[in-house]
Specification:
Length: 225
């Protein structure tokens, strides 16, 4: 069984682009081809007749995904990634929030004295936390980097080890997410949400979806009826 996931995050420089590609490839290989990334960077270019084409193309990918991975790195989250995460919540798409950044951010670390409460708080703005069918994966990239790359002369092996370990964590989280029962648990509820989302995003996105495309999305989520 193949499950396509939307891969959201920065794609503005060589570190973003290559890192996204390496991680997506490692997840695909590590899952035996089950989890395959829908990478926005694969279809985007710097020059388009209308800037909304980029937004609409990304939302179209998201609508065709069975689950989604959101890169929540940075002292402040990328605004486009947050918008896509909110779209995924509206559409009841299982979502994994991945943070490899060791810096703290947001407004969740102040207040409260319980250590248990503190441990549950995420290192980003509280408005991005607490949603159903969502999992958080905090991966200490700097710690793992020091273990893998210190004394390793073979860059290819080091990269395979680093991304292989991260991919394994993501695959385990994806497996857990796919076991959570959907909130939109019928084809009718999902169709209503999809059509409402298309309408709220405006005519430029609606024009990309004819009836055949909408039914294809529904048949992927409800293959037996």
């Amino acid at each position: 069984m193949r499950l396509d996931y939307y891969f959201a995050g920065d794609l503005f420089d060589h570190k973003d682009l290559i890192g996204n590609h390496l991680l997506a490839d490692s997840v695909m290989r590590g899952s035996g081809g089950i989890y395959r990334a829908l990478l926005p960077q694969s279809g985007e270019c710097e020059v388009r007749p209308d800037a909304l084409e980029i937004r609409d193309a990304d939302y179209e990918l998201l609508l065709h995904a069975r689950l989604a991975l959101f890169n929540f790195d940075g002292p402040d989250l990328d605004s486009g990634t947050v918008a896509e995460f909110m779209a995924a919540r509206m559409l009841d798409i299982p979502s994994l929030l991945l943070r490899t950044d060791f810096r703290s951010g947001g407004d969740q670390m102040s207040g409260g004295s319980s250590s248990e409460v503190q441990q549950r708080r995420d290192p980003w703005n509280l408005m991005c936390s607490g949603y159903p069918r969502t999992r958080v994966l905090i991966y200490p990239a700097m710690t793992r980097y020091q273990k893998v790359f210190q004394g390793e002369n073979d860059l290819e092996n080091a990269l395979k080890s680093f991304y292989g370990d991260l991919a394994a964590e993501i695959i385990r989280s994806f497996d857990e997410l796919m076991k959570i029962p959907p909130l939109l648990d019928t084809k009718e509820k999902t169709e209503t949400a999809v059509r409402m989302f298309l309408s709220m995003c405006g005519p430029s996105l609606e024009k990309r979806f004819n009836e055949r495309k909408i039914q294809k999305i529904l048949s992927c989520r409800f293959p037996r009826g």
